[in-house]
Structures are given as structure tokens and as C-alpha cells.
């Protein structure tokens, strides 16, 4: 295992040093009382030291605040860890002992006023580096319930898979936390030039000696600095086996956004429990936003959890108002029943959730419909459920608050939705012992309502877990408000052909391919790393094939792959051997109608026929359906293909026109 400082750190902070105390084979439960006493001694010293009444003005802490500010961080919002420690003690709080190594590192941090952080080396994957974040890595704070994604460029300590500490020395993460069972640890002691190197080394050596004395093991001190920015960590004689459960897998792949209780969620899903997710049948097909949840449910079922797929035949009669800027159209019962039947067939046909096979350690899934219990008498529902919901609190939610501020209509019908979803959770808890609800992050309020309802009515603790939303232009894909949908059905009114489905994934932005592979395929993380490190086009095509195979089957995926290969075989990514309409900047600025392009490209014999083709909904530009006969082609439609800029106009079955900007 290698640890290193990135060139950005070395160049940007001359004189910065990181001492690394490596302790291997320790007994982290030994010497706990003495470690706790040493920590309390240092806390008492801080409490009594009047010079620390204003910690941010102390030179050692002020230097870190200045370093943070040079990185564009607000040191008042995200203070260095040593400042937070001192301010907490001055405010009357105490630092918990936790275990021997953590107690000692906190004590040394307070004694020398230096930031210190530690990691369990057996939980680290790959190498360690203090470097700028890539922008696609996950971080969960110690005792946190929400997954954070540090922005690109933020200074982080990270391994191959995750961020271990954010903003240099600001906030420690949960994934490599040193616990009582840890036997191999690395503790960092960070020193800026305001402190002499000798004092930094003295602090690290004292920490090493105290660990050696109280916890035993082989303990050594190392230095990372400008002249030696990297080192190989000593190899431990024995390693602790740290096992991941399905929650860890989901979190690592990016499925988890936040939970009401991460520790309990991880425990329940790891040991196997009953969980549910609801899907309202507002259309006759699910879309790719739902697909991500179905893939997550597959992981959970294979790990031994019992899945309840809840069809929202009852809640669809109201319509979920969450994150909607306007009221939904009220659906008829016939529409809901027809959509429900279609979606049930669709989900069962894909096989991501198995409703048939009940195997030891992997129970079959249950298909339920909340229309079966939401038709209860109104007064019974009002008395048993709605009394537990506060209208005062509901109208504070962003969805409702924004609509009220805009003086737009908000019906009691819509306000009822969260009470219905909350009752779903209670009903499934009572009848199936369901402890976990999974849902999109826009469902957070509704999910927490259900958790609270179970607590009030039954005195039991249930858990909510949300998955991230896939959005385009700020709107959730496939939902009302103009969001473009990519449907899982290949035929019918709400459908996307297998070819167009494949093409959607091929057009994934280079920076998003890795994330989409983690969320929408079953490829291993190592294979995803290899693919994304190579040619982006190869990775995009592999993503497209894998997702199309999951939804439409192997045969349809191969056919889409072959058709795409024939149409898009040029090195620069534009189709060859298809009609091409060359345009100038002047034509685009003057307003070049798409119907004229369709005529010129041979899609229609006349502009009038091209207009009818558009009105039929059979035309797409760059994968987006266009049905406006007055739609013009603009410079925004022209995408970069190597040295060229162009747009792809699709019509009919696999027919393409290239709109090419004249150089």
C-alpha cells in the first residue's frame, strides 16, 4: 500500500509536512483507561488555558484557516478539525474515548494543537493519497446518514474507492474509521510551516511511543514532504478480515443518497429483512429512473432480503406532488388499472425482481397493490392516520411552500398523498414485518413520514433509504413538467425502441459513464475502472450493450449494437453513407426549420409531408423527440464529433440524417 501527497499539495503549500504513524498488530482494546485519562488531561488543559478562548486567533490554528481560505474554503463554515475540537471543549463538550488509538490521537492533537486523523488500514482499498477530488467519489461523515460527493478539485484524503477525509483536515469519514477491533492503523499528524519540523516530529514520536506502550504492536514514524511526497507503508504480519455486506455494495456503487439511520439500515439489510419500494402506475411503462431502483432491488434480493414491489394503484389516484411545480392530471381508474397490468408484466418479464423462486436464504419477492387497503372508510383513515400529520409542517415543505408563494392552487387532495404513503409503510410493517422503505430522493419527506408514523403508532423503529435521482435540465426523467423520458417498454404509447434505448446510453457524457455503469450494470467495479480508463467510446458502447441486455434481452441488445455499428462506423462518430445536410452559421442564425432539413435529407417529399412527420412524433434530434413543426435547428443542437460539429436527426426505423456544420 502506497501513501502520497499530490503535486498540487506539494506545489501549493511549501513547507507542509505530514508525519504518518503506522501501528501494526496492535491491541486496540488494551490500555483504554490510561488512554482515556491522558485524553481527559489534555481536555482539562484546554479548558483552563485562557489563551485558547479565541481558538481561531491562535497562530497554529490561524495558519490552517489561512490555508483553507487559500483553497477557496470558508474556514468559519468548514473549520479545521483542531479548531472544531478546541471550540467544542471550550463550549463544554467532551471528546469520547472510543478506543485506545483514537483517544491517543485526539489527545496528541490537543496537546500540540495539530490536526490528526486516523484510518484502519484493513478497510483501505488500494493506495492512499492526499489529492484533489475527482468529483465522482463518495464520502459519508462519521456518524453521518447522508452520502456526500466532494466537488472536483476539493483537497481530500482518498483511496481507490472513496474519500476518507474531506477538505484536507476538516471532516473524517466513516468508511475507514478506527474501531476497537482495528489492529493495523495509520495516523496522520499534519504540520504547516508555522510549527518547526522538529516539534511536529516530537508530536508524532510521542504518539507512537504511547501507542507502543498501551496497545503494543510494531509502530513506526514516517514523513511525507516536498522532497519525499510518497512512501510504501510497512506490510502488516496479519490482516483483519473486514467483510462488506449488501449495504456497503450499494453505497459503494452509488445507490445510496441518504438514510434515516445508516447504522440500522446497514445492519438490517446486511442480515436480511423485508423492504419495499412503491411505483405509481402513472404511465403504461416504467422508465430508466425506475430501472436504477429495480437493479438495486436485485442486489438486495440476491443478498437475502425479501422484496415487496408495491404497485401504487391507490396512490396513483391522487398523484405524488413531491417536487412538482404544478398539480398532476387526475387519472381515471381505468387508466390506472390498465397501466398497472402493463407494468406488472414488464417488471416480471425483466426478471430483476424474482417473484417465483423461494430459495433458502433468498426469499421470493411479493407483488402488492396499495389499492387493496387504501379504499378504507374515510373517517377511519382520518382518525387512525391523518391525526399524526401536521399541516403546519407539511406546508413548510419546499414543494408546497413554493406553490403557495406563487399563489398557485394546492388541493387538499395533494396534501393527502404523504399520509397515504405513510400508511402504506405502516400497513406493510403490520402485515409483513417490513422495516425498510426504499425510494427516490424526492420521496424523502414521504418516507420519513412513514418512519415517524410507525414510531408513533407502534413504538418501533423503521428505516428510510433513498436513491439518487437521474435528472436532465433539473427535471426528473420521465416525470411531469417536461422531463424527457427513456422508457423501458419498446412498443406502445410510452416506449423507446431498443435501438434508441441503446443510443441513449451510447451518448452518455464521458464523465458520467463510470457512474452509469455502477448504477445500471452488474459489471464489477474493477472492470468498470478498466473500461473508463481506456477509450471513452468503447466504454460507452459497453454501457449501452449491458443496459439494453438487462431490459430487452441479449438478442435485442446485439441487434441494436449491430445496427448502431452500421450507422455510426465513422472514426469521428458521425454516420457514413446516410443523407447529409450541410448548413452554415448564417442559415442557423436566420432560422433553419427542421422540416426543411427533413425534406432536404429525403425524409419527406415536401415540407408539408415533413410537417406531418413531425406532428406524428416520429422525429428525434440528438435522441430527443420533436413534434413541433416550427422547431428550428440551432447551434445548440450541433454536438462535437472530433473536428466536426453536427446533429443527428432520426426518423422512422433506424433512419438517420446528419446535419453538418460547414467548416
Q: What does this 3D model show about the protein?
A:
With 663 residues, the chain is of the alpha+beta class. It has 3 domains: 2-232, 3-Layer(bba) Sandwich (Phenylalanyl-tRNA Synthetase, Chain B, domain 3); 246-470, HUPs (Rossmann fold), CATH 3.40.50.620; 573-663, Structural Genomics Hypothetical 15.5 Kd Protein In mrcA-pckA Intergenic Region, Chain A (Roll). A 6-stranded mixed β-sheet has the order 9-8-7-4-1-12. A 6-stranded mixed β-sheet has the order 13-18-17-14-15-16, with helices on both faces. The longest helix is centred in the first third of the chain and has 19 residues, at 197-215. The protein is globular and about 85 Å long.
Provide keyphrases for this structure.
663 residues; Structural Genomics Hypothetical 15.5 Kd Protein In mrcA-pckA Intergenic Region, Chain A; single chain; six-stranded mixed β-sheet; Phenylalanyl-tRNA Synthetase, Chain B, domain 3; Rossmann fold; 39% helix; globular; 3 domains; alpha+beta
CATH superfamily annotation of the largest domain: Phenylalanyl-trna Synthetase, Chain B, domain 3
Instruction: Output mean pLDDT.
Output: 90
What CATH first level of the largest domain would be assigned? Alpha Beta
Helix content: 25-40%
Using DSSP, what is the number of strands? 28
Number of domains: 3
* CATH architecture assignment of the largest domain: 3-Layer(bba) Sandwich
Tell me the fraction of residues in β-strands, as a range: 15-25%
Treating each run of at least 4 consecutive H or I residues as one helix, how many helices? 24
In angstroms, what separates the terminal alpha carbons?
Answer: 51 Å
Poorly predicted runs: 478-483
Describe the strand arrangement of the main beta sheet, using strand numbers. 9-8-7-4-1-12
Question: How can the largest sheet be summarized?
Answer: 6 strands, mixed
Amino acid at each position: 500500500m502506497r501513501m502520497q501527497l499530490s503535486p498540487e499539495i506539494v506545489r501549493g503549500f511549501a513547507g507542509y509536512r505530514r508525519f504518518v504513524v503506522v501501528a501494526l498488530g496492535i491491541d486496540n482494546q488494551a490500555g483504554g483507561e490510561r488512554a482515556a485519562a491522558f485524553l481527559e488531561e489534555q481536555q482539562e488543559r484546554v479548558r483552563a488555558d485562557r489563551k485558547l478562548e479565541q481558538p481561531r486567533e491562535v497562530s497554529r490554528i490561524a495558519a490552517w484557516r489561512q490555508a483553507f481560505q487559500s483553497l477557496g474554503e470558508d474556514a468559519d463554515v468548514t473549520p479545521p478539525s483542531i479548531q472544531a475540537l478546541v471550540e467544542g471543549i471550550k463550549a463544554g463538550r467532551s471528546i469520547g474515548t472510543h478506543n485506545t488509538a483514537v483517544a491517543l490521537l485526539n489527545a496528541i492533537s490537543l496537546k500540540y494543537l495539530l490536526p490528526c486523523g486516523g484510518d484502519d488500514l484493513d478497510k483501505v482499498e488500494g493506495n492512499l493519497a492526499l489529492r484533489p477530488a475527482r468529483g465522482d467519489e463518495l464520502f459519508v461523515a462519521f456518524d453521518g446518514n447522508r452520502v456526500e460527493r466532494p466537488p472536483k478539485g476539493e483537497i481530500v484524503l482518498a483511496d481507490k474507492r472513496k474519500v476518507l477525509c474531506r477538505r484536507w483536515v476538516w471532516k473524517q469519514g466513516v468508511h475507514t474509521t478506527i474501531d476497537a477491533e482495528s489492529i493495523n492503523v495509520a495516523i496522520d499528524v499534519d504540520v504547516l510551516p508555522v510549527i518547526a519540523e522538529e516539534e511536529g516530529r516530537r508530536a508524532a514520536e510521542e504518539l507512537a511511543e504511547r501507542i507502543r506502550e498501551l496497545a503494543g504492536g510494531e509502530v513506526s514514524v514516517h514523513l511525507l514532504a516536498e522532497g519525499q511526497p510518497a512512501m510504501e507503508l510497512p506490510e502488516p504480519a496479519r490482516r483483519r478480515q473486514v467483510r462488506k455486506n449488501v449495504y456497503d455494495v450499494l453505497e459503494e456503487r452509488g445507490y445510496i443518497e441518504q438514510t434515516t439511520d445508516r447504522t440500522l439500515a446497514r445492519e438490517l439489510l446486511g442480515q436480511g429483512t423485508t423492504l419495499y419500494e412503491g411505483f405509481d402506475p402513472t404511465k403504461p411503462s416504467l422508465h430508466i429512473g425506475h430501472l436504477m431502483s429495480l437493479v438495486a432491488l436485485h442486489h438486495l434480493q440476491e443478498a437475502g432480503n425479501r422484496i415487496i414491489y408495491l404497485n401504487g394503484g391507490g396512490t396513483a389516484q391522487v398523484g405524488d406532488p413531491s417536487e412538482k411545480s404544478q398539480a398532476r392530471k387526475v387519472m381515471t381508474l381505468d387508466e390506472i388499472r390498465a397501466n398497472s397490468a402493463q407494468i406488472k408484466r414488464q417488471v416480471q418479464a425483466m426478471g430483476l425482481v424474482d417473484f417465483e423462486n423461494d430459495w433458502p436464504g433468498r426469499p421470493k419477492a411479493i407483488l402488492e397493490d396499495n389499492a387493496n387497503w387504501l379504499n378504507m372508510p374515510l373517517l377511519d383513515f382520518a382518525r387512525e392516520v391523518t391525526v399524526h400529520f401536521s399541516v403546519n409542517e407539511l406546508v413548510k415543505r419546499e414543494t408546497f411552500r413554493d406553490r403557495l408563494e406563487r399563489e398557485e392552487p394546492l388541493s387538499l387532495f395533494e396534501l393527502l398523498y404523504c399520509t397515504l404513503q405513510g400508511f402504506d409503510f405502516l400497513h406493510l410493517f403490520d402485515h409483513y414485518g417490513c422495516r425498510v422503505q426504499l425510494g427516490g430522493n424526492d420521496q424523502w419527506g414521504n418516507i420519513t413520514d412513514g418512519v415517524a408514523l410507525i414510531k408513533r403508532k407502534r413504538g418501533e423503529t423503521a428505516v428510510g433509504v433513498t436513491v439518487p435521482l437521474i435528472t436532465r435540465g433539473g427535471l426528473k426523467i420521465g416525470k411531469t413538467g417536461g422531463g424527457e423520458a427513456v422508457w423501458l417498454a419498446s412498443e406502445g404509447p410510452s416506449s423507446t425502441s431498443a435501438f434508441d434505448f441503446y443510443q441513449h446510453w451510447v451518448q452518455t457524457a464521458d464523465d458520467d459513464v463510470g457512474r452509469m455503469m455502477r448504477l445500471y450494470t452488474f459489471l464489477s467495479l474493477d472492470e468498470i475502472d478498466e473500461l473508463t480508463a481506456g477509450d471513452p467510446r468503447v466504454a460507452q458502447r459497453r454501457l449501452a450493450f449491458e443496459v439494453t441486455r438487462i431490459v430487452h434481452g441479449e438478442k435485442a441488445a446485439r441487434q441494436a449494437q449491430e445496427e448502431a455499428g452500421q450507422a455510426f462506423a465513422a472514426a469521428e462518430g458521425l454516420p457514413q453513407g446516410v443523407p447529409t445536410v450541410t448548413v452554415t452559421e448564417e442559415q442557423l442564425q436566420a432560422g433553419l426549420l427542421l422540416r426543411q432539413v427533413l425534406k432536404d435529407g429525403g425524409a419527406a417529399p415536401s415540407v408539408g409531408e415533413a410537417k406531418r412527420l413531425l406532428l406524428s412524433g416520429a422525429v428525434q434530434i440528438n435522441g430527443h423527440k420533436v413534434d413541433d413543426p416550427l422547431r428550428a435547428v440551432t447551434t445548440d443542437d450541433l454536438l462535437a464529433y472530433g473536428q466536426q460539429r453536427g446533429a443527428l436527426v432520426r426518423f422512422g426505423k433506424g433512419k438517420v440524417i446528419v446535419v453538418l456544420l460547414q467548416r
